[in-house]
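Forum > Structural Biology > Help requests

Title: Can anyone predict the 3D structure of Dimeric dUTPase (All-alpha-NTP-PPase superfamily)?

Hi all, first post here. I have the sequence for Dimeric dUTPase (All-alpha-NTP-PPase superfamily) but no way to get a structure on my laptop. I'd be grateful if someone could post the structure tokens.
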Amino acid sequence: MNLQAMFDKQRELDEKIVHEKGLQDESLFEKKVLALQVELGELANEWRGFKFWSGNSKPRNYVESSCSEENAEFYYCVKCKGNFDIDHELECDGNVHPMKRRNPILEEYVDCLHFILSLGLEIDETVSYVSSDMAKNYQCQSPSEQFNLVYKYISTFTSNRNEFWYVALLRVFFSLGMTLGFCPTEIREAYWEKNKVNHERQATGY
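Reply #1:
Sure, ran it for you. Structure tokens for Dimeric dUTPase (All-alpha-NTP-PPase superfamily) below:
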């Protein structure tokens, strides 16, 4: 996966946050590490496969949510409780809502990716490319093991803060993405979409 363009967009976002929040004199490395671990936990929570005690351990990889008109993929009618395509002639004026389909697991995954890229910028390390073949070398037998391995590599990278362990963290993280069923194109497109949202949030004082 080519990462250079993502690093460029992440740098732009990071610089905007630092400037607008007045963080120029503050070290953010440890906070970014903690944020990454929190986001990884949220990702695991959407995956749900570790919840052996629960009657609902199926992945939350599909939800329907309301959205703006320009982002609508279909409409939901409150009156008849039906979904209609965008080009369908609606007869329920005032009772329809624009909706879109989302994958919460993919969304949480790219939230993690934002912080991993940001940590690379913290140590002035921007890896231009990570191959799928190299990521496969870090695959475990189960997603639970894969999640734990990512946590382990986060800890090791935090202690060492060098190129070797950063590249290893990237590879094990992309291996997790493969384990969860994501292809590079999906990850890249989801990253662009969430990066745009993050820029908009900064503009509105999020």
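The helical segments are 4-21, 29-47, 104-122, 132-136, 143-160, 163-179, 184-203. The two ends are 30 Å apart (CA to CA).
Shout if anything looks off.
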